[in-house]
Design brief:
The complex is a heterodimer. Helices cover 35% and strands 24% of the residues of chain A. Chain A is α+β, with helices and mostly antiparallel strands. In chain A, a hairpin with a 6-residue loop joins strand 6 and strand 7. The longest helix of chain A is centred in the N-terminal third of the chain and has 31 residues. Chain B starts with 5 loop residues before the first helix and ends in a 10-residue tail after the last helix. In chain B, 72% of the residues lie in helices and 0% in strands. The chains are: A alpha+beta, B mainly alpha. The interface between A and B is large, with 61 and 51 residues.
């Protein structure tokens, strides 16, 4: 008896699931078809200014189209079309001029009635950020309006996920109700009138369960959320060589598979919580106390220390560097080299067993010792300083490959101190006391992004805000040359300082702004290969090459 | 398309199941399944589907031809058919290997080598479907079956997607009746689901992690692999190949059942065998039977002198090796097994039977595991070096150790995989008992299915590796 009832309940549940999913899917598709959705935002401005706005669409900035309108003093209505079948992460505004803005509501016309989010509901999701990455204050609520004051030069206001997702959820309210009611009615009719219902048994449920499992993805909307920092594969172009379509469709299908992200979260949780291992061991390994480490093949090999430099290779690097230095000297340029060590070096105590250093030494250690003993190259090695600092502070991000702003700041001090030995007239090195230092805990970072486990791991993020509020340098974007990933430059108001050219990789992100304080012009090239055209054009007095340990082998090339 | 892909499981399979049962009419089902199978094959193999279609057509015509002839003509027709099938196989699979070997020979005699040839991409499953086609021709020749009158039915026999790309090798006389009439029932369908889910689990949850372990170790330079690592890699690979292949066979058999077909079993716990001879009755059974019926027995089998039998056995194992792939390491692996078969035949089997059974198992496992090293490692010298390392004959001065590769996850899978090499569920009818407690059966299968899907979905995750700035 009990078994019979159980079979019936399970059967009804499975049939209900099939009905509900299919109707809901169809209703949603019909609703979206031929409809244009837009966010209508009420904004009160204290002055008449141009305002740029964009939608942040997953993944990251890809797909963000920036538009501009002229805000008039007083109330304005802004209409932003919402792209269909994309995940909107946030709505952003950017003002180049100081202004007071009041956001009173966001509206969207939906099925039967408009969806409205008022100021009070919006408050916790409105975030303010400054272009110099300094710490920002929170907006406040006045008369049901979110008030934000944009006081600096470049400010961004973002209306974050919570609000945007809440609108999306309300949008699908009616299809959901419709699907629920129809399925329910169908079930009642079926169970009352169908004779088959009386014959429901385990065999039938077993079969039905399998069919439900394998067909649910067909009657579920495609998942268009990207968590991979890349554009998801598009639907293949059908108007092409027919034999090429399957491969492209495969990619599209896999990228948009419903529940794909949820399934992966389950996998990640099992691998991490039960076995304490990384879900993507070829990219990231999980160390002790929540420290993540890059485990790309080249990084692991570099750190294990199996593969070492021969005496000849060390000599080659030394000769290359000295030749470079001499050549630059001839043009009146002083060359400095700094090699930021990998996190594996500075925080080796947190490394997991699987990627520990096994050899007695490493390429990096060999090279550092060799250059210090045998070479005249102006080498700045931040290793000892960083290791000294880590007793009191965290100097690398736990969830990222790179050092944090504090670690970078002390490396900056080393670099300028060293340059000042040759250029005593350079303005004095900034001290940590010149800044207000704040520490916040968040959970972003490149490594945690690679395994998509934000909120599982946290990092200590320091913010350094200069006490001196006068703005002395301006950042400008220059045009890049062949072999350069990007080229920007800083101009200083003091034109009597020497000129700098910095060859960099990602470790310089937090260095460059500090360095720029000391030079009349600081050219910043993203790349490792020095380019004589660039050098002859910029005519620097000082050339600093920053090259992280991971790329140390590039020094073997002249 | 492979069975363990999201696209197959959640898009192709549901549509094909629904399409098949839309109309329970054998002609409709055969037509529909044939088209679906061609679609399945063309999805991954593109224009190579025409190779298969051509092969089916030729075999269809030759089959009728054989049937019409008697006496010498019949033998000629069969010979033509076999030569065409082998020709296709050789052209696509072995031409590069043969030419390379001929060139090496020419090089010795300073004759100019053959250059500038373009080799075809190997069509997936060609070894399987040409063997099936040949079994059809031979069965017709032997008058065991009638030649197929319907092109569609022969096409379905060759191309039926569950067994198309990785077996089991279905023999025509086993399935001829099912092409015309097959039983389809809910309980058979459910049996199919069980087999399929178990096969999927073997592939995703056991074989894949073991493949990772073996690959990580074999990726290292051979002289960096210590004795424990060499053992781990060899055992992990043995587990990988077993669970991968038998998992795929389970999925094929399960899918067959969903459509009403009964395909032959392909594996029967090979690692519990007590001799190499027994191993080959438990490993890739459909291939062993094929070779027995269509090669070994026609060669004369064991009806002649001992020397004659040994010659036949060596030929069979040479071909078995070659069938697995066009390289000397596969041939070496085949002959390695052949060698132990010979030893067992000339009397070692009698000694084996007298020693405690545990030693019989150890003997079998050692031979098989060392054999897999030949199979996995392409370079002959490296394979022998690794085998020496396993025997402790090399002094390995390496900084690597097992800890780099293994963590508790891989250890757990390793132990589970070893446990599942034994027929635990058959022991004292555990399987039947589990089936009776339906809740446990459903939850167990559901868990295997979900974990496999989780693995499949995780494998599609390929973040853009970037620098943050």
């Amino acid at each position: 008896m009990v078994r019979e009832w159980l079979n019936k309940v399970v059967f009804l549940f499975l049939v209900f699931w099939l009905c509900f999913s299919s109707i809901y899917y169809l209703a949603k598709e019909i609703m979206i078809a031929g409809k244009s959705l837009e966010y209508v935002i009420e904004i009160n401005a204290s002055a008449s200014i141009p305002l740029q706005y964009s939608l942040n669409i997953a993944p990251g900035q890809i797909g963000a189209k920036i538009s501009e309108i002229q805000l008039k003093k007083g109330s304005n209505q802004l209409r932003i079309p919402r792209p269909l079948r994309k995940e909107v992460i946030s709505i952003n505004f950017l003002s180049t001029q100081p202004v007071e803005l009041g956001l009173s509501e966001i509206k969207m016309d939906a099925f039967f009635e408009p969806i409205i989010i008022n100021g009070a509901e919006m408050l916790s999701s409105v975030k303010l950020s400054y272009s110099d990455l300094s710490n920002s204050e929170s907006p406040n609520l006045v008369d049901g309006t979110v008030q934000v004051s944009l006081s600096k030069n470049l400010n961004t206001i973002s209306i974050k996920k919570k609000v945007v997702h809440s609108i999306d959820n309300q949008l699908i309210y009616w299809p959901r109700v419709l699907a629920f009611v129809l399925s329910f009615v169908f079930l009642i009719l079926f169970s009352v009138f169908s004779s088959r219902f009386q014959k429901v048994n385990y065999q039938l449920n077993f079969f039905l369960l399998f069919m439900v499992l394998i067909s649910t993805p067909i009657i579920t909307s495609k998942d268009n959320r990207s968590r991979e920092n890349r554009e998801l594969a598009p639907f293949p172009n059908l108007d092409q060589n027919i034999w090429k379509i399957p491969r492209e469709f495969n990619k599209y299908y896999n990228d948009h598979f419903p529940f794909r992200n949820e399934l992966r979260y389950i996998g990640n949780a099992i691998k991490y919580r039960i076995f304490n291992i990384s879900p993507k061991p070829d990219a990231v390994r999980i160390g002790k106390e929540g420290w993540l480490f890059n485990s790309a093949k080249d990084v692991v090999v570099l750190n294990q220390g199996f593969d070492l430099y021969s005496k000849e290779e060390l000599e080659t690097i030394k000769n290359n560097l000295e030749a470079k230095s001499r050549l630059l000297e001839k043009h009146g340029i002083t060359y400095y080299l700094t090699i930021p060590p990998m996190k594996h070096r500075v925080y080796k105590e947190y490394l997991p067993e699987s990627i520990k250093q096994l050899g007695e030494t490493t390429k990096w250690e060999q090279l550092m010792n060799y250059l210090k003993e045998h070479s005249s190259v102006r080498l700045i090695d931040p290793y000892a300083t960083l290791v000294g600092l880590k007793k009191k502070h965290v100097v690398y991000y736990q969830t990222d490959t790179h050092w944090n702003k504090l670690g970078a700041f002390y490396a900056y001090q080393l670099i300028i101190d060293r340059i000042r030995m040759d250029f005593p007239n350079l303005s004095p090195t900034l001290q940590i006391d010149d800044f207000v230092v704040e520490m916040k805990v968040d959970s972003t970072g490149d490594l945690v992004g690679l395994i998509d486990m934000k909120n599982t791991f946290a990092r200590d993020a320091y913010y350094l805000t200069s006490k001196d509020t006068a703005q002395k340098v301006v950042l400008k974007v220059g045009s890049k040359m062949e072999g350069e990933s990007s080229y920007v430059y800083y101009e200083h108001i003091d034109k009597n300082q020497p000129k700098l050219l910095l060859y960099r990789d990602s470790f310089s992100e937090y260095l460059r702004e500090h360095l720029a304080e000391h030079f009349s012009v600081s050219g910043i090239v993203w790349g490792h290969q020095l380019n004589d055209k660039r050098i002859l054009k910029d005519k620097p007095d000082i050339l600093v090459q920053e090259l992280m340990e991971r790329f140390i082998d590039k020094l073997l090339l002249p | 398309m492979i069975f363990s892909s999201l696209l197959f499981l959640f898009s192709f399979l549901p549509f094909v199941l629904i399409g098949n049962y839309l109309w329970r009419n054998i002609k409709w089902q055969n037509t529909f399944l044939f088209i679906a199978s061609l679609y399945f094959y063309a999805w991954g193999e593109r224009e190579k589907v025409f190779v298969m279609l051509g092969s089916i057509l030729v075999n269809f015509l030759v089959g009728k031809w054989i049937e019409k002839k008697e006496g010498r003509g019949r033998a000629v027709a069969l010979t033509v058919g076999v030569v065409v099938n082998l020709g296709v196989l050789v052209y696509f699979k072995y031409s590069r290997f043969f030419i390379e070997n001929i060139n090496q020979l020419l090089d010795v005699f300073n004759i100019p080598i053959i250059e500038g040839l373009k080799y075809e991409r190997l069509p997936l499953g060609i070894s399987f479907y040409t063997f099936q086609s040949m079994s059809y021709l031979v069965d017709v020749y032997r008058k065991e079956v009638k030649a197929q009158r319907n092109f569609l039915n022969l096409g379905l026999y060759v191309a039926l997607f569950p067994q198309l790309v990785a077996g089991p090798i279905v023999r025509y006389n086993e399935i001829a009746a099912q092409l015309v009439k097959r039983t389809q029932s809910l309980s058979k369908f459910n049996e199919g689901i069980r087999r399929f889910v178990i096969g999927l689990g073997k592939k995703m949850l056991l074989a894949n992690p073991m493949a990772y372990v073996a690959d990580e170790i074999y990726m290292l330079p051979v002289d960096d692999i210590t004795t424990p690592m060499a053992w781990m890699a060899a055992i992990a690979y043995s587990l990988q190949i077993y669970f991968d292949f038998s998992g795929y066979s389970d999925m094929a058999i399960g899918l067959g059942k969903m459509f009403g077909f009964d395909l032959a079993e392909n594996f029967n716990f090979p690692y519990i065998a007590k001799s190499i001879r027994e191993f080959w009755t438990r490993w890739h059974i459909s291939l062993s039977i094929w070779f027995r019926d269509y090669l070994y027995i026609p060669l004369g089998g064991s009806r002649g002198s001992t020397l004659f039998t040994m010659r036949n056995l060596l030929i069979v194992f040479f071909i078995t090796g070659l069938w697995h792939g066009a390289s000397w390491s596969f041939i070496g692996w085949g002959l390695f097994h052949g060698f132990f078969i010979l030893i067992e035949r000339v009397g070692f089997d009698k000694i084996l039977k007298r020693i405690p059974f545990i030693f019989q198992h150890i003997y079998l496992l050692l031979v098989v595991i060392f054999g897999w090293v030949f199979f996995r490692i392409e370079n002959w010298g490296d394979a022998i070096f690794l085998q020496k390392t396993m025997l402790g004959l090399n002094r390995i001065d390496s900084l690597s150790n097992l800890k780099i590769i293994m963590n508790n996850y891989y250890w757990m899978v390793f132990i589970l995989a070893i446990i599942f090499c034994f027929p635990l569920l058959k022991y004292k009818n555990v399987h039947e008992k589990i089936k009776r407690v339906k809740l446990i059966e459903v939850l167990g299968l559901l868990l295997i299915f979900l974990l496999s899907i989780v693995e499949m979905a995780s494998n599609t995750y390929s973040p853009f590796i970037y620098f943050r700035f």
